[in-house]
Amino acid sequence: MLGIGSQVRVFGIGKATIQIKIQNWDDLALAAVGKRKRPARSVEVEALVDTGAVKLYIQSSTIEELGLRHIGEVRSRTMSNQTVTRRVFSPVDLEIQGRSGRFDVIEVPDALPNLIGQIPLEDLDLVVDCQGRKLIPNPEHKNGVLYDEY
After folding, report:
1. Is 62 inside a domain boundary?
2. What is the pTM of this model?
3. What is the pLDDT averaged over residues 112-123?
């Protein structure tokens, strides 16, 4: 059986699709302090890994399913060089290949794919191996996640 993040389809340099697991961070925090008895709302979805994107972009229907809170707006430049305002939602726990981190969510319409941008990739210390057609742990860090602080 393949785990989350094991299958990747590469679409040119720096782009691939992958299965991810997303959990509502607020639910996880409430459960951790005993204020939520039910499991955290969670989904497994396909996402496009795009090293040209910056943040974590999730479709509107998935945001609704997770019950995320609207917390603000950001301006984004699209591939067609247009500037759009997108809504920002409360954080999620994003899991890829057994690595997880907390990330705010930027909403995209359901007509667009979920996107994993460069910041989540760097935080999880993952890189796209275009020749091997997969997402891999950073080969420069043989002993696991390592953050560069300079």
Report:
1. yes
2. 0.85
3. 95
